[in-house]
Design brief:
CATH architecture of the largest domain: Sandwich
CATH superfamily of the largest domain: Cupredoxins -  blue copper proteins
Distance between the termini: 70 Å
Helix content: 10-25%
CATH topology of the largest domain: Immunoglobulin-like
Number of domains: 2
Bound molecules: dinuclear copper ion
Number of strands: 11
Largest sheet: 6 strands, mixed
Order of helices and strands: HEEEEEEEEEEE
Structural class: alpha+beta
Strand content: 35-45%
Radius of gyration: 21 Å
Number of helices: 1
């Protein structure tokens, strides 16, 4: 079979970009951990506060698990409970979140924490917070008139640093 020179170039270019795309996707999924919620756990969204762990939202230190902290979070129009999250540097954290009404987002900008919170489902994400700072948490799913005002803050603090940063 004879291939014209330009055809060969395009074949190489097409195959090359496909491979590059798959590599980028693979790094994102397996290295950076960006993937959809597993959504395997369900909950009655009208009564989330009646069930564990959502009867006690907040940041909790845990023992005997593969992670050090749990952030139990309830989103509703148009705020988050807890309103702010503070975690120590290098803590392994499991976020356990759901919504009381409509679909909300939970994205900590500048980190790989980004979840979609769907009514009736529990979203979980485990990560290590390895950079100090204050990160804006935004709702990135349109949820109504107050959507633009739905935000919160994640603070990652170094417990060993001198307390003169502010
Ligand atoms: Cu909640 Cu947009």
């Amino acid at each position: 079979m004879h291939l014209h020179k330009y055809e060969k170039w395009w074949l190489v270019f097409g195959t090359g970009t496909l491979i590059a795309f798959l590599i980028i996707l693979g790094i994102g999924a397996f290295h950076s951990g960006s993937h959809p919620n597993n959504s395997r756990k369900t909950i009655d969204y009208e009564r989330v506060e009646d069930f564990e762990p959502f009867n006690n939202p907040g940041v909790h230190k845990v023992e005997g698990k593969d992670w050090d902290y749990e952030v139990v979070l309830i989103a509703s129009a148009f705020n988050y409970n807890p309103a702010e999250i503070e975690l120590p540097l290098n803590a392994k954290v499991k976020f356990i979140a759901t919504t009381k009404d409509v679909i909300h987002g939970f994205q900590a900008t500048g980190t790989n924490i980004n979840m979609m919170l769907e009514p009736g489902y529990i979203s979980e994400y485990t990560t290590v917070v390895n950079k100090t700072g204050e990160y804006l948490i935004v709702c990135n799913e349109y949820c109504g008139t107050g959507h633009a005002y739905m935000y919160s803050k994640l603070k990652v603090v170094d417990p060993n640093a001198a307390n003169d940063s502010e």
